[in-house]
Amino acid sequence: MNKALGHRLIGPGGLVALSFVGHSLKRAIRCSKATFWLCTCTLLAACNQEGILGLDLLPENNRFPTVTDSVELVGSTVLEDSLQSQLPSSLLMGELIDPHFGKSSASFAFQILPTSENIRLADPDSSLTLDSLILSISLAGYQGDTNTTLLVRAHEINPTVSSSKVYFSRDAVRTTGPILATRNYRYRSGLIQPINEPADTSIGTIVNVSGVFRMRLDDQNGFPEGTALANKLLNGRDSIEYKNADAFVQFFKGLWIEAVIHPDAVHNGTGLLLQSNPIATKTGLYLYYRSGNKRRRLDLMLRPVSGSRNVFRFDYAGSSLLQDLNRHSGSDSSLQISYVQAGSGVKTRLSSDSLYRVLRSRSGMDSLSLPTGNRWVIHQATLEFENADTLAFGKIAPPAQLFLVPLDSQGRNMASLMPDLFESYYDGYLRNGRYKFGITRYLQKLIAEGPKGYDLAVIPGNPMGSLARVRLKTKPRLRITYTRIP
Hints:
mainly beta; eight-stranded antiparallel sheet; five-stranded antiparallel sheet; 7 helices; 13% helix; elongated
């Protein structure tokens, strides 16, 4: 326990703050035990380490026994709202298919900016010749089946993706003109690519790189837009277009990159999701050209100040998830599974009203009105999802951590209403097929104030930087250690 402790007791009379410092804490508790137990209000104890203070308040000689109880809650699978997707921790592109979660697609849009200001491609009297325009994406890893052949498509966007604006995960990207270019792609970890880069001579030099996806945008049959873009960038040869970031964004708005399972590939896999670090140094466009006899390269890159966003689409047709969507285990005893999926897919919803009724029943309160004379101390409470189905659906690993948060009246996640969220005991990590949440303070507040219409939701960690998914057993178990004073 912290040496300086601020502690709240919540009852019908409001909030009473008690502060103790250092060794005087124990003496204050010893001197005050009789007062606490003779109190006629609801006593709800909380501490920085879960349950320590509440257990220390137990009367001597086991006069009032401590009970550990467990009950099952009811829940359902509901669609997640479209979530904010700007500036994600990982940029994602790819597509996944599995019979439980259906088809999931991820793509991303981003700004590219010059790496410096006041760029001149050449002297005013020099002649410029296009060599090539290369789309480059740094790859930080993958999830899924590497037997999958992806069809990668690059688009020019308008308007741009601003770093100062809010974007939602299901908002469509507005493009301008036809597709710039396409490429069939099979991911190979550690693949070395020799790149002919400009050097001091006109011949150039070979540089070996790995962990990078590269696609030529110009000179593709059937896709003249890529060559048109290359010439447009080359024609911005004076300092107007390349003066600074704002000037360049007016000149070129950015790119949208998508990758889908190739519809005509033979022996295709079940899908692949590629991850890119948004602050990587090799994501953007490389414009290779000649100024007279000298070969040069212009870098137009995704920079830390660039805007970026992920875009997700879901098709649950024919999946087991669609069959279970919006069914409720409280009224449908055959429902055994609920679902959680990142990328603003789906979440598990638990009824706070049913939880409240269970707590009132366990406390001996027959009426659902707030108590006036009951004395019930909650020492510890955990909510456990045991035997979670953590198979790698579509070869995508389950979330390493889930979060349990209240929902507002519109069904939106409200982490600010979970008082246990930032405590060390909150947990939520996957261990041996089980997710466990410490929610002592939440239950203390719930029994004191009522549910107020806020159901609970189980959501994945990093919802905008992955497509992790897991199936949970319905009716999770709530375990409570409490004392009821007659």
